[in-house]
Design a protein that fits this description.
The protein is mainly β. Helix content is 13%, strand content 39%. The protein contains six helices and 27 strands. The protein has helices at residues 2-14, 39-45, 192-195, 277-289, 297-307, 309-314, and strands at residues 27-28, 33-35, 47-48, 52-74, 77-80, 85-99, 107-114, 117-124, 128-129, 134-144, 174-182, 185-190, 205-210, 212-213, 218-219, 225-230, 247-248, 251-252, 261-266, 333-335, 337-338, 346-347, 354-362, 367-378, 386-388, 394-396, 409-418. Strand 4 (52-74) and strand 5 (77-80) form a beta hairpin. The longest helix is centred in the N-terminal third of the chain and has 13 residues, at 2-14. The protein is elongated, with a radius of gyration of 27 Å. The model is unreliable at 1-21 (pLDDT under 50).
């Protein structure tokens, strides 16, 4: 008798009976679900808005999908309050994350799917509290073009004789990790004209072609070719983009208002000693695991969490880890080539490599870090712009450097963001 009562009690813990038949044309699946120890208690405890709860357990049948949804109970009926978070499943062992994308839910709905059959279970959810001031975005076909020298009253006074006038530019040469509001739309690949109204606020990086000091039009002697750099570095002598920070009408790019942002390079096996197989495999696997579509709030929460692995694994010194902490290199720029004006000594990145972006916000006492991954998909073929110098070294021909302006370079970007 005791054994029977115990079995009944355990079944009551493992199962929550379906109050309705599965919807969407699916037939009823005869299945049971046994959650792992502590999972139901964790759901009942509640969670911070935007954070995940691990749904672990065992189904009595092999599954093809698990669908997790925050729902509210009213009588015997349940109404969806959050998005249906559909996750691929192969087998009976479940280990999935549900992201709290609603504060109105009273239960978490767990739908087990096997082909065209489904069984639904409900678990009481504690309070979902707090705020989530973050997001995530993806630009799978991002195109960056290095801007030409922007004519203005400083470098072209014959064309623009009046002070603080100039051509401006619509060339997409800037990345904004947190987004720039352009006519009511948040954009992440932006031009100078699009960041000027905010004085450069939220601008993170610039894709440039190093050629001349754009004020004095003096050809630079050491560097040539493409570079991705943070905004304060664009006016450095080795990049020479002074034309970006001149005043155009009532607007002026203030590099001090731009993001505090940095870059780290993750190169492939071509790089020889610079190649870290484990690091590359981690970043490559992480990038590929994040879907390109982030259509719902739950999608953004999941992508934000996944991208957080960069900090937790590669940069955990920012989390206060003291035992063997990890840190990214966090440079202010990466050049396509080193010393390309004198002789190519090294490539710094190729198609197939990754660049990690890091944004530092918050306060000095409580900094907030967010991260993004740039996959280099295709770079403009600049080999026809090389020449051989007197020492027999390849370099980018000064007379051909202008060919690199306005050429499309293709990237796939997945990034966390702070909603300001």
């Amino acid at each position: 008798m005791k054994k029977t009562l115990f079995a009944i009690a355990m079944l009551a813990v493992a199962l929550v009976a379906c109050d309705k038949e599965p919807e969407g044309g699916q037939n009823k699946l005869e299945a049971t679900l046994t959650l792992a120890e502590g999972v139901e208690a964790a759901i009942a405890e509640g969670v911070a808005y935007g954070s995940p709860i691990a749904i672990k357990g065992t189904s009595s049948v092999a599954l093809t999908e698990v669908v997790l949804t925050g729902v509210a109970k009213n009588g015997n009926a349940y109404a969806a309050k959050g998005s249906a978070q559909t996750l691929e499943q192969d087998g009976a062992e479940i280990d999935q994350l549900w992201f709290a994308d609603t504060k109105e839910a009273t239960h978490v709905e767990v739908k087990l799917v096997a082909g065209n059959k489904a069984a639904t279970f409900y678990y009481a959810l504690g309070a979902v509290e707090g705020e989530w001031n973050f997001g995530a975005w993806c630009e799978p076909t991002a195109v960056l073009k290095a801007d030409g020298i922007i004519a203005n009253s400083v470098n072209a006074p014959e064309t623009y004789p009046n002070e603080n006038t100039g051509a401006g530019s619509d060339t997409p040469s800037f990345i904004s990790m947190n987004g720039v509001n352009v006519n009511g739309t948040l954009k992440h690949i932006v031009s100078l004209n699009e960041i000027l109204p905010g004085s450069g606020e939220n601008a993170s990086f610039c894709w440039a072609n190093v050629y001349k000091s754009t004020d004095k039009l003096i050809t630079l002697t050491t560097h040539r070719g493409y570079v991705l750099c943070d905004i304060p570095t664009i006016t450095a002598g080795s990049i020479g983009r002074q034309c970006d920070v001149h005043q155009y009408g009532e607007y002026k790019l203030d590099t001090k208002k731009a993001d505090v942002a940095a870059l780290s390079r993750i190169v492939g096996s071509w790089a020889g000693e610079s190649y870290d197989a484990d690091e590359y495999a981690f970043v490559d696997g992480l990038f590929m695991s994040i879907p390109e579509k982030m259509e719902t709030l739950a999608d953004q929460m999941r992508a934000f969490y996944q991208l957080g692995e960069i900090q937790r694994v590669l940069d955990n010194s920012t989390l206060g880890v003291e035992n063997e902490p990890t840190s990214l290199s966090n440079k202010n720029m990466y050049r396509r080539y080193a010393n390309a004006a004198k002789g190519i000594t090294a490539e710094n990145f190729r198609a197939g490599d990754y660049l990690i972006m890091r944004y530092k916000g918050g306060t000095a006492e409580a900094p907030v870090y967010t991260y993004g991954i740039i996959q280099i998909v295709q770079l403009y073929d600049d080999t026809k712009d090389f020449a051989v110098n007197a020492d027999g070294l390849n370099y980018i021909d000064t007379n051909k450097t202008e060919n690199l302006f306005y050429q499309p370079n293709y990237f796939n970007i997945k990034c966390q963001m702070v909603v300001k």
